[in-house]
């Protein structure tokens, strides 16, 4: 009986391992023949067909519709007379071109991601031709294990970019370009609560499917992340918020606006040079007064001002956005002992920031006082079949919730009472916004150009629980001196589009 029991136990153990091996083999065959069947068939064909170029095999990039539908942004398609030769294909042509990037040969005659998401996620998207010749049993167990832990695998990108919103932003920039002829124009639309970028665009742009026809390689870059600009008066809300948060002022505070002040021998004037007398600090935002911003910066003091700009808003640091070549802002002036440097920084001159860095800071004004990480990929769909949602970290508290409400109330008053003569005000929706007009620095002789400006604009809505923050900017627009003239109508148009497209309920 003892022998029979041992024999039965051994049979059961052997049977178990045989069944397990069979299941593993079935799983691997399903993975190879069903999930990866097309790819391996193409590679097999490639062994008997003479190709003009090395075989391209690469993951897909998807846009995400507002309902979660995946829309192809970058894929492969057969070319020539052979079904086994593939090239990178972008169904949207120029849609999100400077964000997606493209695939091109490098010095080793390999096709690699160049610029944009194609470059940043190249290791995830690229496929090595040697992958298909790996040992079967190594792949068998690796593939089985990959179903449980997808780290390090190859896969497709599921982006946060909503194609209809992206198209509307690009249409808006195209119309702006036709009207104002800037050297450069761009925009970002982001969820301020999560950091998900739903649209990111620049003009001029190019068609990704014929990128090799471009003469100027600068059109491939993304200055929204890899260049810095003096942003002008859209920085004033950060100054006022810092003063509110530190207890330096309240919404009811007043000051004496003299039109011009002198700090460290340097004059600082309002845009029109006129004095306003004793007025509420609200007017610093409503009338965009430089003297008022300088007054607040002086009242805060260099140490506290520096702490808020560098440590709370994290200006001068990279955001961690998932795009290549990100640079950090230039904020060395905030280490100076001279008060004039803090006064000018308070209205957005003397410090230079990336647009994405600026959006991150401005979003904290409306989202309850948190810094989020701007990002464009929400998940990776691995070749194993597993989809992993990416983690972009927890929002970091940077302002008191009450400060967020107060500055949002002040920025809403700007829209309701003065911005574009009140034409942006909506009866049933609250909108918080601010314009910025900055002089452009002369890199040759120092100082600033007398006739070149940067126009910027930002806003979020609904004001006290914003669904979107919108940032717009342009360098050297022609025909209008102030950003309120050039950007207010396009911003208003985008707000109405987003409200209707997402069916955002009114808050008034």
Low-confidence stretches: 42-54, 130-151
Number of alpha- plus pi-helical segments: 16
Helicity level, as a percent range?
25-40%
CATH classification class of the largest domain:
Alpha Beta
Largest sheet: 6 strands, mixed
Shape: elongated
CATH superfamily of the largest domain: DD-peptidase/beta-lactamase superfamily
Mean pLDDT: 89
Q: Quote the CATH topology of the largest domain.
A: Beta-lactamase
SS strand fraction: 15-25%
CATH architecture of the largest domain: 3-Layer(aba) Sandwich
Oligomer: single chain
How many domains? The number is 2
- The strands making up the biggest β-sheet line up spatially as 3-2-1-6-14-15
Distance between the termini: 84 Å
Look at the helices and sheets and give the structural class: alpha+beta
Radius of gyration: 28 Å
Strand runs, count: 19
Keywords, separated by commas or semicolons:
six-stranded mixed β-sheet, 2 domains, alpha+beta
């Amino acid at each position: 009986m003892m022998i029979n029991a041992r024999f039965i136990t051994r049979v059961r153990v052997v049977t178990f391992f045989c069944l397990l091996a069979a299941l593993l083999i079935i799983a691997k065959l399903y993975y190879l023949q069903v999930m990866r069947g097309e790819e391996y068939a193409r590679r097999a064909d490639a062994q008997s067909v003479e190709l003009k170029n090395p075989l391209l095999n690469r993951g897909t990039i998807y846009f995400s519709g507002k309902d979660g539908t995946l829309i192809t942004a970058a894929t492969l398609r057969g070319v020539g007379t052979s079904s086994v030769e593939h090239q990178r294909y972008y169904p949207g042509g120029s849609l999100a071109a400077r964000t997606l990037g493209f695939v091109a040969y490098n010095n080793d005659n390999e096709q690699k991601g160049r610029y944009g998401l194609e470059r940043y996620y190249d290791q995830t998207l690229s496929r090595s031709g040697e992958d298909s010749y790996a040992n079967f049993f190594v792949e068998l167990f690796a593939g089985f294990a990959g179903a449980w832990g997808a780290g390090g695998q190859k896969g497709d990108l599921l982006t946060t970019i909503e194609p209809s919103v992206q198209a509307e932003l690009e249409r808006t920039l195209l119309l702006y370009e036709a009207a104002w002829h800037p050297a450069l124009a761009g925009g970002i639309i982001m969820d301020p609560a999560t950091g998900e970028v739903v649209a990111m665009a620049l003009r001029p742009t190019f068609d990704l499917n014929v990128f090799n026809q471009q003469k100027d390689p600068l059109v491939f870059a993304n200055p929204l992340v890899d260049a810095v600009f003096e942003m002008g008066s859209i920085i004033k809300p950060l100054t006022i918020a810092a003063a509110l948060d530190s207890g330096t002022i309240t919404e009811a505070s007043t000051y004496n606006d003299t039109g011009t002040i002198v700090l460290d021998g340097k004059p600082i004037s309002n845009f029109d040079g006129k004095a306003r007398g004793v007025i509420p600090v609200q007017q610093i935002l409503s009338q965009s007064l430089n003297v008022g911003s300088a007054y607040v910066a002086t009242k805060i003091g260099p140490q506290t001002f520096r702490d808020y700009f560098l440590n709370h808003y994290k200006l001068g640091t990279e955001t961690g956005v998932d795009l290549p070549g990100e640079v950090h802002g230039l904020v060395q002036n905030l280490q100076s002992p001279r008060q004039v440097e803090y006064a000018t920084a308070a209205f957005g001159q003397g410090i230079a920031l990336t647009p994405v860095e600026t959006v991150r800071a401005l979003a904290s004004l409306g989202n309850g006082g948190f810094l989020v990480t701007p990002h464009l990929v929400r998940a990776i769909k691995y070749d194993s079949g597993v989809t992993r949602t990416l983690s972009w970290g927890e929002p970091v508290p940077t302002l008191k919730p009450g400060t967020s409400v107060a500055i949002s109330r002040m920025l809403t008053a700007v829209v309701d009472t003065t911005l574009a003569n009140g034409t942006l005000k909506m009866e049933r929706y609250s909108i918080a916004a601010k314009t910025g007009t900055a002089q452009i620095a002369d890199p040759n002789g120092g100082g600033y150009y007398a006739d070149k400006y940067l126009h910027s604009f930002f806003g979020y809505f609904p004001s006290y629980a914003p669904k979107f923050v919108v940032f717009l900017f342009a360098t050297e627009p022609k025909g209008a001196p102030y950003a309120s003239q050039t950007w207010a109508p396009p911003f208003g148009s985008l707000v109405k589009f987003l409200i209707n497209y997402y069916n955002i309920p009114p808050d008034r």
